[in-house]
Amino acid sequence: MTDYDTTLFTPVDLVQIELDVYTDAYRVSGKAMTRFARVADIANQAANTHMHLEAATISEYADPSATVGAMQVLVNMDAALLVITAESEAPQRPEMRIPKRSVRAQIGLPPFRLTGMVHVPTGSRPADGVLNASDRFLTMTEATIASAKHPEIARTAVAIAFQRARAQLILVADDENPDELLADVLDAATAERWLHAAEQEPL
């Protein structure tokens, strides 16, 4: 009889994690139950069409002083632009990962502008790795979040998940020539100006 690793089939316990979900109008902070540790996995594996958050706080960008508390809230994941969470206690499954490499990117996701590192399969062109990914939410690490419309939202995060289909602009840099942008989305001159624009400038 051939021995094999039975831990691949061991059920993973649910753990509670704290996370923030951003739409184009609201920030919802609360606690969710998940079997996953990586933020993109949590966002992509949300059951049904909504994510269930408990002990939630809801803030509206248009009125930052007004917040609402709720024991439970359902967040429409089609409307979710960003999901942010600290590392959870859910166990990692390294054997399930696809080898990837990091490339610098900036994402126009109104009302947000995201700058950080995205992760594409080894051997792929950066733009292809982002555009051809099968997951709805993609991971960005070393992320900076800015908003000209709502500057109070600005923050940094170790890792975030963003909804690729809602991105209006995607700029990725060739990791071998990090100062030269690929002109797959915009012409090179326009892309260069936008990528290095001052944080206060609107998209």
Overall description:
The chain has helices spanning 39-44, 126-131, 188-195, and strands at 15-22, 26-34, 50-60, 63-76, 82-85, 100-109, 112-121, 137-146, 155-163, 169-172. With 203 residues, it is mainly β. It has 2 domains: 6-85, SH3 type barrels, CATH 2.30.30; 99-195, Roll (SH3 type barrels). The chain has a 10-stranded antiparallel sheet. Strand 3 (50-60) and strand 4 (63-76) form a beta hairpin. Residues 178-186 and 198-203 have low confidence and may be disordered.
Oligomer: single chain
Helix/strand class: mainly beta
Unreliable spans are: 178-186, 198-203
- Number of extended strands: 10
Q: Provide the number of structural domains.
A: 2
The CATH class of the largest domain turns out to be Mainly Beta
Task: Tell me the series of helices and strands, N- to C-terminal.
Answer: EEHEEEEEHEEEH
Proportion of strand residues? 35-45%
What gyration radius follows from the Cα positions, in whole Å?
18 Å
Q: In CATH terms, what is the architecture of the largest domain?
A: Roll
Strand order in the largest sheet: 4-3-2-1-5-9-8-7-6-10
Draw up the topology in text:
Layout: E1 15-22, E2 26-34, H1 39-44, E3 50-60, E4 63-76, E5 82-85, E6 100-109, E7 112-121, H2 126-131, E8 137-146, E9 155-163, E10 169-172, H3 188-195
Antiparallel strand pairs: 1-2, 1-5, 2-3, 3-4, 5-9, 6-7, 6-10, 7-8, 8-9
